[in-house]
């Protein structure tokens, strides 16, 4: 494990104030969390994108609180010092403020995460406020919000025209006023992200495909390493093709088993001749 101290909210606010970019990635399992911790990643989002990247659904909508709790607990075990955010799944906060507080509380109590994230602007500000009043740090999510994909008309940049851009800026202020300590802007034009970051008084602005002027960056882990076969969004830089490495390894395993190359003696366990002879005798005596 790393020697690093636990990442805290004051640490994140200090970095933002000092103009030092904050690093944030998605993660859904123990071994990847372990690696992200070793790499010094500061924030980890256990996103409901796990519905697509880990469970093979076509959207995030079927993901449940039980799914999120199981994966978030695994990530916490792998990354004890990272600042971990549990992503509130579809319909875990939309029905009412009370539902939102109960599910945010469940996340904190059952997974040991540090904060929660939920999607939506001014119309979700009362959920953010309720959660924050209950003592739970909350992050807002604006721009492309995958749980509203049907209403948004697909995976596309949000806020390219002036009136929608103004709405996103107003939504950001509403979330900040409600007490969100951070806001994620997903697929918003870079200039809108810059305006929101400049106008943030006490709120950390994070970018996913929204340019360099936020306080930090988020990427989807599976997009970074070629691990999601269905599509690669433009905003995702590939930092290594783990998918290709794994596929080549799987093909070699397949070929070695059918070619009787694997297993080799170093890959199995034997027993002493004497014990084996005794066994054969015992079997013959029967
Ligand atoms: O679920 C998730 O990973 C997210 C990102 C798309 C920001 O919410």
Q: How many H/I helical runs?
A: 12
Kindly state the percentage of residues in helix.
Answer: 40-55%
**Strand residue percentage:** 5-15%
CA-based gyration radius: 23 Å
Overall mean confidence score, pLDDT: 96
**Assembly context of the chains:** single chain
As residue ranges, the low-confidence spans are: none
Bound molecules: 3-methyl-2-oxobutanoic acid
Secondary-structure element pattern, one letter each = HEHEHHEHEHEHHEHEEHHH
Instruction: Give the helix/strand class.
Output: alpha/beta
* Coarse morphology: elongated
The major beta sheet can be summarized as: 8 strands, parallel, barrel
Query: Ends: how far apart?
Result: 54 Å
Count the beta strands. Answer: 8
Q: What strand line-up does the widest sheet have? A: 1-2-3-4-5-6-7-8
Would you give an account of this structure?
- The protein has helices at residues 9-18, 30-38, 50-53, 65-78, 97-111, 125-133, 149-152, 162-178, 190-199, 221-224, 242-258, 273-285, and strands at residues 22-26, 43-46, 83-87, 115-119, 138-143, 182-186, 204-208, 216-219.
- It has 286 residues and is an alpha/beta fold.
- It has an 8-stranded parallel beta barrel with strand order 1-2-3-4-5-6-7-8, surrounded by 6 helices.
- Helix 9 (190-199) links the parallel strand 6 (182-186) and strand 7 (204-208).
- It is elongated.
- The chain starts with 8 loop residues before the first helix and ends with a helix.
- Bound molecules: 3-methyl-2-oxobutanoic acid.
- 3-methyl-2-oxobutanoic acid is lined by residues 26, 45, 47-49, 87, 146, 184, 186, 208, 220.
